[in-house]
Write a structure and sequence with these properties.
The protein is of the alpha+beta class and 217 residues long. Helices cover 24% and strands 34% of the residues.
Length: 217
């Protein structure tokens, strides 16, 4: 389904590339619920699954780690054809001409997203580890973080129905449409008029060299 070969960051055909692969890793970290899409003889499979980014010593994204229910029909699809596509859905939103006070300026939609071709391998021996790592990640910062070991007595019944997988990254196609194509005046008016939130934060990050100091963080 996807081309073989070494890992590469697709840039040539991307109109809105990320600044670097670190931004894709940050996007996955902030928006871990991704779509895992695959195809086989029986049709398409698509599952929304929380995933963890795995990076090499240089910080480059090399895999996404997660788990799914063994009853999920996509397990059979992926065992027969391990090629798949992971879709990372980050912040997005409609940008109205009202923000600029210029009716000639047409509306647009800004977003930060990525599509990542992968090869999926199942790693049943790492199922508990996948649950623990994801739980620890999501519980981090809570006053009394829940641990998988808190439900130790339930695990023997649950684990046989779950399987871990590692999606090995073949390429990264990030689309970070965050206002870099707007004029300096335009991006200041847009960000200055937006409600505070994740999309605005990412737009500030991608335009920090052009924003006026009075634009509040």
């Amino acid at each position: 389904m996807f081309p073989a070969g070494p890992l590469r960051l697709i840039v040539a055909r991307m109109k809105y590339p990320p600044r670097d692969s670190d931004d894709v890793v940050a996007l996955i970290d902030q928006y871990p619920l991704c779509w895992l899409v695959s195809a086989g003889a029986s049709g398409f499979g698509a599952s929304p699954l929380p995933l963890l980014a795995e990076c090499d010593a240089d910080g480059s994204l090399v895999a996404l780690f997660g788990h799914m229910a063994l009853s999920n029909p996509q397990v059979a699809l992926l065992r027969a054809q391990p090629s798949a596509l992971i879709l990372v859905n980050g912040p997005q939103g409609y940008i109205s001409p009202e923000l600029l006070g210029n009716p000639v300026w047409v509306p647009t939609w800004n977003y930060a997203m990525a599509s990542i071709p992968v090869d999926v391998s199942f790693v049943p021996d790492e199922t508990r580890d996948s649950i623990e790592r994801l739980t620890d990640r999501m519980e981090a910062g809570r006053a009394a973080p829940w641990k998988v070991s808190d439900a130790e007595e339930r695990l023997p019944k649950m684990l046989p129905h779950i399987i871990a997988f590692r999606a090995h990254v073949r390429a990264i196609d990030g689309r970070f449409k965050l206002g870099r194509d707007e004029s300096r005046t335009g991006i200041n008016e847009i960000v200055g008029g937006m409600d505070h939130g994740p999309l605005r934060d990412w737009m500030r990050l991608y335009n920090e060299d052009r924003l006026e100091k009075e634009i509040e963080a």
